[in-house]
Design goal:
The chain is α/β, with parallel strands linked by helices and about 280 residues long. It is built from eight helices and 14 strands. Keywords: Hydrolase, Metal-binding, Zinc.
Amino acid sequence: MTVHTLDTGLFKLDGGAMFGVVPKSMWQKLVPADDNNMCTWALRCLLVEDGNRLTLVDTGIGSKQDEKFRGHFYLHGADTLENSLRQRGFTSADVTDVFLTHLHFDHVGGAVVRTPDNKLQLAFPSATYWSNQAHWDWATTPNPREKASFLQENIRPIQESGHLQFVDGGAPTGLPGFQEIVLVDGHTEKMMLPVLPYKGRTLAFVTDLIPSAAHVPLPYVMGYDMRPLVTMQEKERLLQRAAAENWVLVLEHDAQTECITVQNTDKGIRVAERFRLSEL
């Protein structure tokens, strides 16, 4: 098995929203903000080669939204999902599986594309798309607070295509290379964190549970989270396990750091090492 990170561009979100109740005087030392209080974040995906299966984990924002929408998030950078796939020697037709950690627009937007005649179709026409029933139901009948993150043009075409399958947490069946799927409910209902054995280590793609290295301390929780106290409990469980077993945590939104390990300190769990996945 070979695992790659794929960069699909950069975007900006309000620093206060990204760090919740943590004061700016503390978080801006870790992630500097611009004059509008916006911080730069990555849109990083994971690509897993395992035999004749090629699994893409999340898909970034994509490019089908209009300029007004894209302008809200200051999308920038030269990287795209298509170009990053090409750099690894693949095209969209080679992807056999698309694993969606959750259905917020910055994770699923690249899963569906708009054709020149304004139709929506799968970006990966040969792939099976994986979600879970509880999260799918949550996203397709969204609550008012989260509705703006669940854009139906990113979601409905997947089900209508007949390519959608559901997976449960725990030890997954049908997904190559995956050792475990950890389900968490703090950020959104039943978000999925894939865990994979790799080069004698354990990789965990921690998506929006720990979006960046700056979010490792327990109180550093996003204002976007539906259940922030649950996020703190879930982070603590996962980080304790990661520290005890020396896991490699792959970060989806950290613009500077791809991977970290963590350790227990007298101040709680903190980052131990920072590195690129290719350095393993």
